[in-house]
């Protein structure tokens, strides 16, 4: 039997003024991906059958490199935000904390590696 008032139980479980920002970030990254994904698919399909030199020269163009970096960053940002929601909803206890940390580090490292790889192609092509 719980002698606590329902308001005391609910306190701390409601909006902490951080959910709205997370919701907007998820929507913003979705809109970015709605624009960038068709561009990426069209760009990649345009390079089907091309040799390595042609692909590197295509990535080395400033507009293409900028769009590619925007695509990669929004993709990993959106992935991290989405996985965060799933973990918060379905995993509890120390596993939640560990998975949140793993997802954040994995997405950050993958995003950094992608930007470095694109930059390396741009500056060595």
H/E series, N to C? Answer: HHHHH
CATH architecture classification: Up-down Bundle
Tell me, rounded to a whole number, the average pLDDT. Answer: 91
Which strand-content bin applies to the residues? under 5%
Number of strands: 0
How many structurally independent domains? 1
The largest β sheet comes out as: none
Radius of gyration: 20 Å
Number of helices, where a helix is a run of at least 4 consecutive DSSP H or I residues: 5
Q: Whole-Å distance between the termini? A: 70 Å
As residue ranges, the low-confidence spans are none
Helical content class = over 70%
What topology does this entry show?
Blueprint: H1 6-10, H2 19-46, H3 52-60, H4 62-90, H5 94-124
Description of the structure:
This protein has 125 residues and is mainly alpha-helical. The chain has a single domain, classed as Fumarate reductase/succinate dehydrogenase, transmembrane subunit (3 helical TM bundles of succinate and fumarate reductases), CATH 1.20.1300.10. It is 82% helix and 0% strand. It has five helices and no strands. It has helices at residues 6-10, 19-46, 52-60, 62-90, 94-124. The longest helix has 31 residues, at 94-124. The radius of gyration is 20 Å and the shape is elongated. The N and C termini lie far apart (70 Å). The relative contact order is 0.11. The model has no long low-confidence stretch (mean pLDDT 91).
């Amino acid at each position: 039997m719980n002698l606590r008032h329902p308001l005391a139980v609910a306190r701390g479980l409601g909006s902490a003024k951080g959910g709205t920002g997370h919701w907007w970030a998820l929507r913003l990254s979705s809109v970015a991906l709605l624009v960038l994904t068709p561009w990426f698919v069209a760009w990649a399909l345009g390079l089907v059958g091309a040799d390595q030199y042609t692909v590197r020269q295509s990535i080395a163009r400033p507009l293409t490199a900028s769009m590619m970096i925007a695509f990669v960053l929004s993709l990993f940002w959106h992935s991290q935000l989405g996985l965060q929601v799933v973990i918060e909803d379905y995993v509890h206890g120390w596993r939640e904390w560990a998975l949140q940390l793993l997802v954040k580090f994995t997405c950050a490292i993958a995003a950094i590696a992608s930007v470095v790889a694109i930059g390396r192609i741009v500056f060595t092509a």
